[in-house]
Amino acid sequence: MNLLPFFQTFFQDSYNILWLLCALFIAGVLEAFLWKTPLFEPFNKPINVQLFGANKKWRGLISLPLTHAASVFCLQLVERVLLPVLLPEFACDRGGLILFSCFNFLEYGLLVGFIFNLSELPNSFIKRRLNIPPGDESNPVFFFIDHMDSTYGTLILWYFYFKFPFHIIAVGLLVAPLLFMLATWIRKRLGLKK
User: Phi and psi at residue 25, in whole multiples of 5°?
Assistant: First the structure.
C-alpha cells in the first residue's frame, strides 16, 4: 500500500491551512493593539453577559474582520513579490496551493474574521449554562473545544462559501485547532492575551 499520495496531500493541506491561519494570527496581534485605542472604547462592551459572559465583547466582532482584511491584503502583497520568484507557473485554479492572491481581500478577510469570532459564541453560551468560567483552561477537553469552535466555524465557511476541497477541511479538523492553540500560547507569551 502506497501511502505517499496521502502524506503528500496531508502535508500540502497542512501548509495551506498554516498559511491561511497566518493572517488570523497577524490579525489577532493587530486587534490586541487596536483594542487599546480610543476608537474601540465604545465597542468594549459585552454582547450579552447572561448569554455569553462578560468577556465576549462587540470589539472582537468588529476588530477581527477589519484586522484580518488588512492582514490578507498585506499577505497578498507578500505573495505578489514571492510568487514570481518561487512559483512562476502558479495559477489559482491549479496546483493545490491556496493563496490569498486567489481571493478578494475584503470579501475573504471580512468574512473569515467575522465567522472566526462569531463561531465562539455557541461555545460560550454552552459554557455559561454549565457554569464554566471564561478562559478556564484547567480541563483539557474544554481547552481543546475553546480552540476548536472558531477554527471549525472557519472550516465550514471555507467549505461552503469558498468551496475549498473536502480533503483540506478534513485535515483542518485536526490541524487548525492545534495551530490555534499554538497561536494562543504565543500571544500569551508576548503578553497580548491574558
Answer: -65, -50
Sign of CA dihedral 85, 88, 90, 96: negative
pTM above 0.85, yes or no: yes
Q: Which residues of 53-74 are buried (b: 16+ CB within 10 A; e: fewer)?
A: beebbebbbbbbbbbbbbbbee
Residue whose C-alpha cell is 469558498: 162
> What would the pLDDT profile of 131-185 be if each residue is shown by its tens digit?
877 767 777 777 777 778 889 999 999 999 999 999 999 999 988 888 888 877 8
Pair 45, 58: CB distance under 8 Å: yes
Cell of 28: 489577532
Q: In whole angstroms, give the CA distance from residue 120 to residue 52.
A: 9
Q: Where are the domains of the chain?
A: 16-189
Q: Are 116 and 154 in contact (CB under 8 A)?
A: yes
- Give me 178's grid cell: 492545534
C-alpha cell at 70: 488588512
Helix, strand, coil percent content, the chain, rounded in steps of 5: 75, 0, 25
